[in-house]
Every structure is written in structure tokens, then in C-alpha cells.
Design brief:
This protein is of the alpha/beta class. It is 55% helix and 11% strand. Strands 1, 5, 6, 7, 8, 11, 12, 13, 14 and 15 form a 10-stranded mixed sheet that branches. Strands 2-3-4 form a 3-stranded antiparallel sheet, with helices on one face. Bound molecules: adenosine-5'-triphosphate (ATP). Belongs to the TRAFAC class myosin-kinesin ATPase superfamily. Kinesin family.
Length: 821
């Protein structure tokens, strides 16, 4: 028999011997690979529109023995399963065409035994001849009857047994390897044990026929042999596991032809349905344009998912009954056979790594490498080096060395091996962290709001009132440098006590007038700035690179004493002074403020991104739901297909859509929760930024008055404050806008359905405020500062952009309730 060598599923035809061979219609061509079906004039035969068919196959067996079938069709597949490839031999054809005869044969007649007993025999013969390998064989025998699975290697005596077992069996997949959960996989150590299992299965099959009152051969049977192969000689940690499926499909039949009724009709319906699913799968597999097959449509196709083409050596025997009365079924079988020939197959070995052996190999390799290293050390005179894990004492010593290295009392840390390198790095990391915490603690003691990420702690501080009473967000101003903000005044309760300041300034002036005659007075230039008035003191803070030193200096009011003694005659404007302040005493606080603002900006960006993602997710959910509903309607239109328990059977595509819908809903819920959390975080961060602003302003007020107040009267300070009034007003407006939006958003969270309405309200409100601002003083007085800065007003704009995408979230959230069924 010639062998077809293309990488496709191999298909052969076997004819059932008959005295009524329809030789004027069917002929087997000389090449023994073609079956021709000729024109039929009769109206009730085949399709009288098409005249002739020629089906080209991998081989045609006409009146041949069981022996020849096995040698030509099965032997090669079996040998390859022993090499680690999966294999499938499958019989397909109309009822009575000889599938069972081919696959099982007469179990009581040795010469007429079929493919399965011959496979078992050949398998064990081969195993015995392959001395370098050890094989383990496990066998399972599965029956699929009316789309229900039954384990034929379990003793089942009653109908209840069968029904219970059917519920326990289900199909699973593990890295593309299909198996039936709950099915017995029995070990067979010899040909005899394996044959016993076959016969046991056959017996159970006939008991089942009796108990369930089912008709003979109205089920699909899959006899599975799992072959595990390990090399005896090599210490290789890889081994192969292959699966050989020997499949006897139930025979198709035409209901009209057999006039079936009752149980028989029901059986025939299931058989035809599952075979048509099989045909569909084969059709999809053979179509290069389709990259998806609905294997889950039936138990049969699902169980054969890894057995039709693909990585598996698959052979199909199409059994035909070449009599005139069966010509229609014959053509249908040959058509299916032709399609099957197009299914691509690229068999690959199923190699698995044995973890126990792999560890053994690694240990051996490790030992060998250690020996190599020891030899190398001896050759280069590096004796006495240990590669064992470091002891407590050694770690302590390394830590000591690292500390001395950092403080400069040690030039090098002594290192001999990689473990020591790791220990040194770990120690340095720990020292770094400890120092970081130390510095952080000092900052916290001073400013409270320094931790960018620890929201819980910040909450705690807020609740316990440790934010030093900074609560109001009024009285700030616009930004000048894009990094910080311009000057303004703190809220009333935070302002400097003017009376006390004036008193203090008067005292200072008196002290100044008592300066000794020889003492040099500052020049006007020096007076114009606190930095210029005294080269030491505050100036030192700016030039210092030591944070800690700077920090402690800022804390000490006594540092300013010298400057206070020499108030400049013409104080700089608050704007200029504020820039100086941010470079000197306000340096740390301003840094924290900028950092907090950056965090806030990044959170706002995250917020906007997440909202966009949620909207997209909602669109996907809507689309998937529409598709699923369409599929459902199609199914309902075509008539529902129920299983034995009256449950609806849905096809693969609908199942996938429902699963996808559930998955999308899950993601949607998750994202939505994140979105809510992020929102609260943004509000919280906004509060932190506001608090920082006020703290900075408060400190600035104190500093400014200490440096420049001449103590004449209270009106001086009022003038300074009012000189920035326009800017402040504008900032107050910004903060109010943000507060309004924040309040709106809180309301939105409590009632999501109102989202579109409230969004529209917010938009309108923003428009009004913009227009009002344009026509009022602040815009005219300080347009450059206010438009280009990056503080209150700009962030309010950004906030507005972010919130525009929210209505879609609202719609999704509203629908979410109905989606969760
Ligand atoms: N090649 C053959 N040589 C001898 N007898 C055969 C051959 N093919 C089929 N038969 C006989 O035909 C009858 C029906 O065959 P078989 O039961 O194998 O058909 P089937 O395709 O399995 O039918 P069903 O789908 O109903 O199970 C049996 O008696 C069988 O012995």
C-alpha cells in the first residue's frame, strides 16, 4: 500500500464485503487510492444534479484482511507513539459499515481480532524489544452515549451507578493535553493485562446496553493508551508521555430511512448531532482561513481536541457499505473523508522534564563546579576560602567594616567571594534605609506632611490635630516659577500677631540705636536683602549642602537675631522676598510642597487614564453582550438542543461569549473600585497640598516681618498684605472652584445615576466662573502670572478635563447592576 507523505491527517477507505456490491455505481480505481461514484439516473439516489465523484484518499481497502489493515494503517502510528508522539486511529462511517469490526473485531476470534487487540499485542512486543527504555502503560476506556460519558473500566450494575458516574466525569485540559477527570487510567504491565482491560470494557459496554436499554453500537468509544517512556541508560531528566486514542465512532444514519421512534430516535439524534459537530470541527481545521474550531460543542469533539491533526499522528478509516441502498451514506462518508484529508498535522514529541531527576542533575553539577572552583583556588594560591553561607559573626564583621568605610575610617571592605559581595550590598542598603528613616523622622517632627505615600499616617495626623491647626485654604496666591507658587497671606488665624511683631521690632530698633559708634552700618544695597545684610547666618543655609544642618538652622529662631537687628530701610516687595524665602528658610518646606504637588498631578493623570480604560471596557461589554444575545436568539430560532437532564446545550462560540462577558464584568468592577479609591486619594492629596501652601505662607509671613518690618505701626504690615490683594483674590477664586468640584464629585459617588446631570451642572458652572473671571480685575491686573502659572487655576482646568469622561462611567456603573446576573 503506498504511503501518502504530506503533513496532513491520513485517510483510508475500507469497504464492507458484500454480495450486492453496487459495481455499476461504485468502483475502486487501480491506484487503490481512488473511489469513484458514477452518475445515477434514479431520482431517489444521491444528487442527480452532480454526475460523478472521484474521491482521492491515502488508500482504499477492498476485501482485505484484518491483518493487512493493521499493518498498513495502524502499525506506523503505534511505533511513533512509542517514540513520544500522540496518535489517533479512528473509524467513521454509516451504521453497519464495519467500524466495530475494524476496530475491535471479534473478541472471541483471534484471526479476526481488530485494530485494538492487535495494537496491544504490537505495543508490548515493541516494548520488550526496546531494552534501553522503561515503559509504563495506562489504559482508559471511555464511552460517550447521548453526549454523556461513561467509564467502561468501572463496574457499574445499576442505572443509578451509571447516572452518578456520568456526573463525575468531565473533560479537562493541561497544556494542550486533553484528559477526562474521574476516568480510570489503569496500569497494564503486560499484553494480557491490557487485553483483560479491553474485554472488561467490552463487557461493561454490553451490561450498560442492557441496564440503560440502549441499542448496540449507538455510542462512541475511545480506547486510550497512555505510554510513558524513560531512558534507562541516560541520566537525562526528560521523558516522554504520549497518548494513543483508538476511536470507534457511532454510525450515522438517516432518521427517515430507519423510521426510528422513541429511544432509538433520541439516540440517532444525539449521534447525528455529535457527528455533525465533528464534521464542523474538521471543516474548520481544514480551512486555513479559520483559526478557531468549536471543540467544546460536544463531549466527543472536546475529548478528541488533541487527537485530530495538529501535534498528533491521526489516521482515519472511513468504512463504507457499498450497496445501492446505502449509496447516499457512502457518498456522505467519502465527502467527510476528503475533508479530513485536508486537516493539517505536524506531530511533535511530548517531552516532559522530571523534577526529581532534574534536581539530582543540578546537585551533581553543583558538586562538580565546587570541585572545579577548589582546584582553581589551589592553582592560583587562594587557599582557605570558604563558599559556605556566612555566619552571624562574619555578617557582623562585614557590617562593622561597612560602617567604618562610610565614616571614612576604613579605605576598603575586604571581599573574597560572592556571598560577601551580597552581604556588603545588603548592609549598605540597610544603612541607607535607616538613615533615610532618621531624616524622615526629623522632617516629620518639623513639618508633619512629608510622607508622599503614607496616607494612613497622614489621616491619623489629621484626625489627631497634629497638622498644627492649618485648615483654611484661603489666602494663597499664584505661582511664579512653575515649581512653586507666588506669595500671598495666610488665613487670619494663621497670620502673624501684628501687635507682638511691632513690639518686637520696636525693641530691636532701640537695640540698634544703642550700637557702638565703631560698628559699621550696612550699606543700602546690603540692606535690601536679608542675604545681603549679613554674609553669614541665613546665607550659610543656602550654601550648605547638608540637609540636616539646614533643617536644624531653619528651626532655630535665634539664627535670625542678627538680621532682625538690621532691618532694611526699603523692604523688597513680598514677591521678591518670597523668592528669597524659598531659597533660604522656606527651602525644605517648599520642596515638600512641590513634591506633594507632583504626586497630586500624577494621581490626577492616573485617574484620567483609568476613567478612559473603564469607558473602553464598557464599550467592550456592550458589544460582547450584543453578540451573546445575537447568538442566543440564533439558537432559539433554530430550536433549543437539550441534553438528557433537560439542560440547554450551547455551542462553543456562545459559551466563549458568555465567558468573555463574565470576565469583562469582573475587570470592569475591579477598575471601577480602583477608580473610586483613586478619587479619594486625589481629594486627600489636594488637602495635603493646600496645607503645605498655607504652612509655607505662614512661615513666610513670620520671616518677612522678622526681616523687614520697621515696626512703625500696624498700617505698614497692612500695606504689605494689601499690596498682594489682587493676586490673593484670584487664588481664592481658584480654590473655591476646586472645592466646588470636589463637593460635586463626592455627591456623584453617592448617587451614580445622577452623574450626567451633575457633570452638565459642573460644566455650566465652570463656564460661568471663567466668564466672570475674564471680565473682572484679577485677569486684567495679573494676567501673565495667573494664566501661565501651574497652581490653583490650572489644576482646576485639568480637573475639569478629567471629569469630562465620567458620564460614560456612570452609564456603565448603572448598567453593571443588570449585567451581574
Ligand atoms: N470487513 C468485514 N469482514 C467481515 N465482516 C464484516 C466486515 N465489516 C463488517 N462486517 C460485519 O458487518 C456487521 C456490522 O459491522 P459492525 O458492527 O462492525 O458495523 P458498525 O459500523 O460498527 O455499525 P454500528 O455503527 O451500528 O456500530 C458485523 O456483523 C460485522 O461482522
Amino acid at each position: 500500500m503506498p504511503h501518502h507523505t504530506s503533513n496532513k491527517v491520513k485517510v483510508y477507505v475500507r469497504t464492507r464485503p458484500t454480495n450486492n456490491f453496487a459495481s455499476d455505481i461504485i468502483s475502486v480505481e487501480r491506484d487503490n487510492r481512488t473511489v469513484s461514484v458514477h452518475r445515477v439516473a434514479s431520482a431517489n439516489a444521491v444528487d442527480n444534479k452532480i454526475n460523478d465523484w472521484a474521491f482521492h484518499l491515502d488508500g482504499v481497502f477492498h476485501n482485505v484482511s484484518q491483518d493487512e489493515i493493521f499493518d498498513s494503517v495502524a502499525k506506523d502510528v503505534i511505533n511513533r507513539t512509542l517514540d513520544g508522539y500522540n496518535g489517533t486511529i479512528m473509524c467513521y462511517g454509516q451504521t453497519g459499515a464495519g467500524k466495530t469490526h475494524t476496530m475491535t473485531g471479534f473478541t472471541e476470534s483471534y484471526p479476526n481480532r481488530g485494530v485494538i487487540p492487535r495494537t496491544i499485542q504490537h505495543l508490548f512486543q515493541e516494548i520488550n524489544s526496546r531494552q534501553d527504555f522503561s515503559y509504563s502503560i495506562r489504559i482508559a476506556y471511555l464511552e460517550i452515549y447521548n453526549d454523556q460519558m461513561c467509564d467502561l473500566l468501572r463496574t457499574l450494575d445499576s442505572k443509578t451507578d451509571y447516572q452518578q458516574q456520568q456526573q463525575q466525569l468531565s473533560i479537562g485540559e493541561d497544556v494542550g493535553f486533553v484528559y477526562v477527570k474521574g476516568l480510570s487510567y489503569r496500569i497494564a504491565n503486560s499484553e494480557e493485562e491490557a487485553l483483560n482491560l479491553l474485554f472488561e470494557g467490552e463487557t461493561n459496554r454490553s451490561i450498560g446496553q442492557h441496564v440503560l436499554n440502549k441499542q448496540s453500537s449507538r455510542s462512541h468509544c475511545i480506547f486510550t493508551i497512555i505510554i510513558e517512556c524513560r531512558s534507562i541508560l541516560s541520566s537525562d531528566d526528560k521523558y516522554t508521555v504520549s497518548k494513543l486514542n483508538l476511536v470507534d465512532l457511532a454510525g450515522s444514519e438517516r432518521l427517515a430511512k430507519t423510521n426510528s421512534e422513541g429511544v432509538t430516535k433520541r439516540e440517532a439524534t444525539f449521534i447525528n448531532k455529535s457527528l455533525s459537530f465533528l464534521e464542523q470541527v474538521v471543516l474548520n481545521l481544514s480551512d486555513k482561513k479559520t483559526n478557531y474550531s468549536h471543540f467544546r460543542s460536544s463531549k466527543l469533539t472536546h475529548a478528541l481536541k488533541d487527537s485530530i491533526g495538529g501535534r498528533c499522528n491521526t489516521v482515519m478509516i472511513a468504512n463504507i457499505w457499498p450497496e445501492l441502498q446505502h449509496i447516499e451514506e457512502t457518498v456522505s462518508t467519502l465527502r467527510f473523508a476528503s475533508r479530513m484529508m485536508c486537516v493539517p498535522a505536524e506531530p511533535t514529541v511530548n517531552e516532559i522534564i522530571d523534577p526529581v531527576k532534574a534536581i539530582e542533575n543540578y546537585k551533581r553539577e553543583n558538586k562538580y563546579l565546587k570541585e572545579e572552583l577548589a582546584l582553581h583556588n589551589t592553582l592560583v594560591n587562594r587557599n582557605g576560602i570558604s563558599y559556605e553561607p556566612l555566619s552571624e559573626q562574619q555578617l557582623y564583621e562585614i557590617e562593622n567594616q561597612c560602617r567604618r568605610f562610610i565614616d571614612g575610617s576604613l579605605d576598603d571592605v575586604e571581599i573574597q567571594n560572592v556571598r560577601q559581595v551580597q552581604a556588603v550590598f545588603n548592609t549598605l542598603k540597610n544603612i541607607c534605609r535607616a538613615t533615610e528613616k532618621d531624616i524622615e523622622k526629623k522632617y516629620r517632627d518639623r513639618y508633619v506632611l512629608t510622607d508622599k505615600h503614607d496616607y494612613d499616617q497622614q489621616d491619623g495626623q489629621k484626625l489627631s490635630g497634629t497638622t498644627q491647626g492649618v485648615t483654611s485654604i484661603g489666602g494663597t496666591s499664584g505661582e511664579l516659577d512653575g515649581q512653586s507658587f507666588g506669595i500671598g497671606t495666610a488665613s487670619k488665624d494663621q497670620r502673624v500677631n501684628k501687635e507682638a511683631l511691632l513690639k518686637m521690632t520696636r525693641n530691636k530698633r532701640q537695640a540698634t540705636s544703642k550700637t557702638s559708634p565703631g560698628q559699621q552700618q550696612p550699606t543700602p544695597k546690603e540692606k535690601s536683602s536679608p542675604l545681603g545684610s549679613k554674609p553669614t547666618g541665613a546665607t550659610l543655609q543656602r550654601s550648605s549642602t547638608n540637609d540636616e544642618e539646614q533643617f536644624s538652622r531653619v528651626k532655630e529662631p535665634s539664627d535670625m537675631t542678627d538680621m532682625k537687628d538690621q532691618p532694611p530701610s526699603t523692604p523688597p516687595t513680598r514677591t521678591i522676598a518670597f523668592e528669597e524665602f524659598k531659597q533660604t528658610r522656606g527651602l525644605n518646606l517648599n520642596k515638600i510642597y512641590v513634591e506633594n504637588k507632583e504626586i497630586l498631578a500624577s494621581k490626577k493623570k492616573q485617574f484620567a487614564d483609568l476613567a478612559r480604560g473603564i469607558n473602553q471596557m464598557k464599550t467592550d461589554i456592550d458589544k460582547t453582550r450584543t453578540d451573546a444575545e445575537r447568538k442566543k436568539n440564533e439558537r432559539l430560532t433554530m430550536g433549543e438542543f437539550l441534553n438528557e437532564n433537560g439542560e440547554t446545550i450551547i455551542d462553543e462560540e456562545e459559551y466563549e461569549l458568555i465567558a468573555k462577558l463574565q470576565e469583562l464584568k469582573g475587570i470592569y468592577r475591579n477598575d471601577y473600585d480602583q477608580w473610586k479609591d483613586l478619587k479619594s486619594e486625589i481629594n486627600y492629596c489636594q488637602n495635603l497640598v493646600n496645607q503645605c501652601q498655607h504652612r509655607l505662607l505662614q512661615e513666610f509671613d513670620i520671616w518677612y516681618n522678622e526681616c523687614y518690618s520697621n515696626g512703625n505701626n500696624a498700617t505698614d504690615i497692612d500695606d504689605i498684605i494689601s499690596s498682594n490683594k489682587a493676586t490673593n483674590e484670584y487664588q481664592v477664586y481658584d480654590d473655591a472652584a476646586e472645592r466646588f468640584e470636589r463637593m460635586q464629585k463626592e455627591l456623584l459617588l453617592s448617587d451614580l445615576d445622577s452623574m450626567p446631570f451633575r457633570q452638565a451642572q459642573m460644566r455650566t458652572n465652570r463656564r460661568h466662573v471663567f466668564n466672570a473671571a475674564r471680565t473682572q480685575g484679577p485677569w486684567k491686573q495679573a494676567p501673565t502670572t495667573t494664566i501661565t502659572n501651574n497652581t490653583g487655576f490650572r489644576s482646576a482646568q485639568n480637573y475639569a478635563q478629567e471629569t469630562f469622561s465620567l458620564p460614560a462611567i456612570s452609564v456603565g456603573a448603572g448598567r453593571q447592576k443588570s449585567m451581574v446576573r
